[in-house]
Model the fold of this input.
Amino acid sequence: MTAIKTCCTTLLLSCLVALSGCDSGSVEVIGGPVAMRKISAEQYRNIIADTFGSRIEVSGRFEPANRRDGLNAIGTSHVAVTPSGFEQYEALARSIAAQVVASEHREALMPCQPVAQSAGDDACTGEFITHYGQQLLRRPLTESEVQLRVANATLAAADSGNFYTGIELALSSLLVAPDFLFRIEEAVPAPTPEQPDRQRIADYTLASRLSFFLWNRGPDEQLLAAAARGELATDEGIQREVDRMLASEHLAGGARAFFYDLFMFDQFDDVSKDAARYPLFTRRLADDAMEQTLRFVVNHLIAGSGDYRQLFTSRELPMTRSLGPLYGIPVRSADGWETSRFPDNQPRAGLLSHGSFAMLHAHPGRSSPTLRGVFMREALLCQTIPEAPADVDFTLFSEDGNAQYKTARERLQVHSNEPSCNKCHVLTDPIGLGLEVFDGIGSYRAGENGAAIDSSGDFDGKRFSDPVELGRAFAENELVAACLVENLYRYAVGRPELNRERRLLRQLEKQFAAANFTLPALMRDIALSSGFRTASPARESSQNQQAATSNAAASADQFAKAKETI
Amino acid sequence: MAIITPRHMPRRTFLRGTLGGAALSVGLPFLDVFLNTSGTALAATGGPLPQRFGTWFFGCGMNPARWNPAETGADWALTPELQPIAAVRSRMNVLSGFSVLLNGEANQVHRTGVFGSLCGGAPKTADSVEGPTLDVLISDQIGTRTRFRSLEMAATGSARDTVSLRDVSSVNAAEPSALALYNRIFGAGFTDPNAADFTPDSGTLLRKSVLSVVAEDRQRLERQLGSSDRARLDQYFTALRQLEQQLALQLQKPPPLAACRVPESAPEALPADTEIGNVRRNHELMAQTLALALACDQTRVFNMVFSDRASSLRMPGSADTHHTLTHEEPRDSELGYQPGATYFVLQSMEAWASFVATLDAIPEGDGTLLDNCLVMAHSETSEANTHSVVGLPFMLAGTAGGRMKTGLHLNGTGESASRVGLTVQQLMGLNVGQWGTDQNQTDRAITELFS
Done:
């Protein structure tokens, strides 16, 4: 409490915004080793837009993300570049560089003018490389990095008789550089008597950690300048920058990127539905359903500074005309988004009632209570659902060959009668069945095959009768907020927490509660936490093994695994 | 930061001796010099025909009792589920009875069978694979002198549906459509080997110089990294080198290839999803495009995924997928098998037969393109209902340039599938005598297949 007082006298304003941020210093842990994290497709686009403006098109494909421990953000610390992936990066680099030097853009984008267009100009080339290199690589370039590129540009300009050919090559070489495509983190020794191995995250690395975490984009000039002055290494300096970043319009994009990852929305690329069973389903519907959920979450948590738990109970949601029929809602706006509410005659409330979840966690031709249950347990409650055993005798499902179970509940009843199934399905099916009134794309239905759907069940000791009550039970379950803390921390540092960081997570959970479960406060606490700002020496595989494993089964192979559960 | 002046330029530049001072519209003799100094040998004109290796994957296996032939050797009777390959059976071998031995590890559903077969050992945990897969091993040997080291394709329309990886952090994503495949191969950067004139694109040399700039900086980065990250950086530079080699190839006139026919137009854009009709059409166009790419020697290694692991194939209007049917559909008491799931087994075999026929339709040398290929069809299970990895289905098509006999059925009687993998490597000319790990280690190739 002393810490809070001292802090609040000096930083009163921040304390009002986020009381919890002030005692973040009370749990001191050393974070895990620094990583080499591949930038995501979205981050790539953001960096290009921030550096060259939105008129420069980024048109090309990116390799699929690699999900680990439930998050693509953790996969970025493991994934490499394949030959075909590199081929795509090189093509993108050429296309971007060609656009930047094209006559319609070059005037606005060149920081200097060459002495003559028909020959090299080392001074101007160097200025170009230094200026854009810092933005793209998120740190000042070394002298040799600049030299190499100037030399190559000079030769190319001389040979082609065109200054801009050299510029184009220099820019291409920045865009395919490993330190552009990866965030290669650095830490510097910062020992204390008790912790001789302690390192602190180096200034420019910390700037990137902050900006990719809070904004999902590269650091802006101000943040790089703070890093250059060494200010991020001080509590006041980093707090000032974090508070500035939390006040930025980019915060919404940062929050959005986290939930896109957590909700596995990259898998929307592969969602397809049977046209005869779901005539309403179109690519547009899927895109809008995903966008609807992201808008809802970001509006509530960022614009509205809302309580995270209310995401499970809110009846409001953004709506487009294409989504109207899915929810049975008339939509006035012909295009664009309007704020709407779930219809009163449907038992819908909160995220779990969104079309996006219903369609993502289902089969092409039907719903799947088990897939939905797995998602809720793993992504929202941070629990692990083991792999299905390989040798299950699935003929149990309908050995007599003719019994036609009408509802999913009847079909899944078999699971709970069979011990080898029940162990896992007792976790997934009851809550998944609570959402059975939403079909494979999320339309409401009262019955299936002529039989009424029973949405009642038990969620970890709490009875519910329909999705509204299930949403309320989620909002009231302590694990829900704790799981968000865990996932957001993992997302921020790009790895599962180490055992020694568990203490920090408990502290962050308390702070999250004290801040009324508001997301910006949690983001602030994580960004200022010791685990985020420090590191232990080089990552070795044995240390990876130490990582907490609560979510370990949600692995690189999650997608295939998810399909296995039926 | 100081602006760098020319006199500070490092002498180890990349355009050194090539671009420096010379006009870019360089003539061929000059290029020959360039290529020789960079160590990339010119492809021999009139030399032996290129040999190719490919995999063809289908999900959820088959019904052993209906798929496995009873007789071994050359004189075997077609079984119900091999009926679709009747027209091409003489062009391939059927291998039954080869298994992934679990070595005490859990059978990880829909993973152990495929990665056990392709990597020579059962994966130990749910998120590990002891790569590389066979195709990567082989492409390291034969894939470095073509424009593409390998081509991955998924008829299911998802870039994620791939079985090719160097390791768990380096998974080769698939081309999701025939059109994307076509554009990659026959779009920018393609040179018709049979064109009368050849003008090297000056831009290619410039692109190469960009890669050299990046490669110059490698040591600084390596010093910064821990061991696991250094391995990933190595993979980055492997990928970069592969592109350098591609570009080097584009600077020389390719030797004429009589079999090469450049497609006149791009394939149509098709709906890409897991509905069986769409998958079949997408697969057919991909196979045709791939066959032309092989004939034009754009790649020597490929991986075709017809259906994904835990097959998502489905019939229009159905609530089920191939995969869910294998687990949930009742066994028809008269037929003795699951008719709905089995429909997709037959579809897979039909697609495989058409794939083989597509390669066989292109004349090359004294025979066909297929003669200079070795294509391994495989799945992740035998009986999918129980995820069995015992007696996995394998088929080897083509003759690997006359090295492999065809028309045989052999029964592995439960021995490790590594024997198939070792055989394939030896047929492709790899100097390897032993392959696989633990129980799946073998030094016994299936010599009955060698000509």
In short: Residues 39-183 of chain A form one domain. The CA atoms of residues 493 and 532 of chain A lie 6 Å apart. Residues 283-303 of chain A form the longest helix (21 residues).
